[in-house]
Amino acid sequence: MSDGRRSALPTAELTTAVCAHAVIARLLGEEFLLTLRHREQRWHMLPGGAIHSGETVCGGLRARLRELLGAEVGDLAFHTAIEDEPRPEGNHVNLVFDTSLVGADDVEVVSRNDQWEAVWIRWDDIRATDLYPPLVRRRLPVGTLRDEAWWATELRSASEDGEG
């Protein structure tokens, strides 16, 4: 029988980081996707990063792209949210947007961060690329830049989609 009091069991404090990433594609004979490759560990991620306290999601994503690439982007079209597997240090929720570079030579984008290298990968090679978060790699279409949203509109976690 419950008396309405809270359980005396200890609870772990779990933090959630909100990150925003951009899908920046270009068509130059073939379709390419801009990624950032970690210089030491060699895995890729979509450009972007953590949203800081006091920033809007879109404002934070624009700031991270300026910091990482020195580039401005156009309109941001929301596509999906991907929740990483829970970790002892906290969760990450990744918001993914489609956009394009503005006023920059998108063939020669250079990372402004010593830890990351800007790399254009062929759209057809996305599935074979070590791209973080893994669910992104599975959800990107192969060989097409479509105008409609290319991810499911419902919000899903990595564990619900078979990642893990």
UniProtKB/TrEMBL annotation:
Protein origin, superkingdom: Bacteria
InterPro entries on file: NUDIX_hydrolase-like_dom_sf (IPR015797)
Protein name: Uncharacterized protein
Organism: Amycolatopsis pithecellobii
Phylogenetic lineage: Bacteria, Bacillati, Actinomycetota, Actinomycetes, Pseudonocardiales
